[in-house]
Please model this.
Amino acid sequence: NAGVTQTPKFRVLKTGQSMTLLCAQDMNHEYMYWYRQDPGMGLRLIHYSVGEGTTAKGEVPDGYNVSRLKKQNFLLGLESAAPSQTSVYFCASTDWREGTGELFFGEGSRLTVL
Amino acid sequence: GDSVTQMEGPVTLSEEAFLTINCTYTATGYPSLFWYVQYPGEGLQLLLKATKADDKGSNKGFEATYRKETTSFHLEKGSVQVSDSAVYFCALSDNNNNDMRFGAGTRLTVKP
Model:
């Protein structure tokens, strides 16, 4: 069972470069999320999607864009990377219709911006 | 808005010691409560959950009881093992907003 898969797992960027993180889930979940994890701050929600073709801002959306063109994929883009975006990024998915909305997480993508 | 506050770490225990990690929440509605665990190099995974007041979630020897009167969901285990070393996150879900809020995480290290 693949579950939630994130690519790439590691990436080093220079300030100003752009990149896209891909999240893919095979559980037919409607809801998908992008979080960032920083020491001492837990997980903070960047953007989320409640279904194909929809996106919404979370707690810390600035500097990021997202797209959900297909139900199974949720892309997180950095147009002009900054050192403050050095973090570990986690994608998660769920289906709130099934109950309380347990989140299923990918293994994370570690991004370093120099 | 809804929020979760959990005990700051790190926590270091000897094997077979008793574990408590405190978690309190603030919510306007009736959230579901969760504990997630993150092992080194991995994503978060659900450890246990409780969906209404007085429910007790349990898994792998861990327990937590949903206490509405004290707005708490403390994690406990009677005898920890080295393999329990991980970061533990308390979280709540607001079913009205389809949103999940996480605490800052507590790093547990268990020494043999």
